[in-house]
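ok so I'm stuck.
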Amino acid sequence: MRPPYFLSIVELRALSDCAPNTLLTLSLDLGRTRQPIRRTEDALELPGGFQLPLPPRPYWAHPDKRTILIFRDCQWEKWRYFDPQTNAFYKPVFVAEGQPPTVEISGIKMHVTDTGGPLEDTRRKIQALGKVNGRVLDTCCGLGYTAMALGRIPTVFQVITFEKDKTMLRISRENPWSRDLFRSTTIQVLRGDVFQCLSGLPAGIFQAVLHDPPRFSLAPELYSVEFYREVFRVLRTGGRLYHYTGNPRKHRHKGLPERTLARLQEVGFSRARRGYRGVCARKG
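replied:
not stuck anymore, here's the structure
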């Protein structure tokens, strides 16, 4: 079975600017690889003679800079999903050439992209976590960029990550930038709600925890004292925590980071302090 093909605004602009029978070098996997492709009158001719139809003209004549097209079921369509169970709309979004996509869920962006792309956002979160080794918990998998980056650290031998959203898992399996999430022998992706599942794990099993939950309004339980007690329990003594919070309602006297620091200290964390767009703490 062939993996899905993708077109971003980079490729769509190239198609719009060229005449039929032009040989182009394009990416069909969102910038992971590039290959020679000939544009004919009505198709894209790939090496080996395989052909894809051109997208409908409105898609490439006037492309939207954020929209990504996916080829499936023998046609090009916008890469997006609606989940009637959660009433949520999922849209993978093009960020920049050479960068992986992010996802907007009902308009809420998953990654910080105003100071770089998802890879830079991930790098800064791991940098805030500090030196890590052994077994690491990535509480909320999403597109898997954090789990994959943690799994590439030589001193980390296992990354366990949870994802309860079946639509996010589907997007991750399609996303060319997430393929190592399911290929890596270091990463274990568990389908389930980390809030419910953490209590079933042994105490002191993790050397570090990176907690990057959905925003507070969508998952308040992942900012609760109850959840932080479980995070404290599964961390070994000396283990590190980085917790992304963002800073909604930052003009309040006590914003979410400050309230989070107080809750972490309440359950026993020490050395709690502000970090990159969130907070950091230690156990013991």
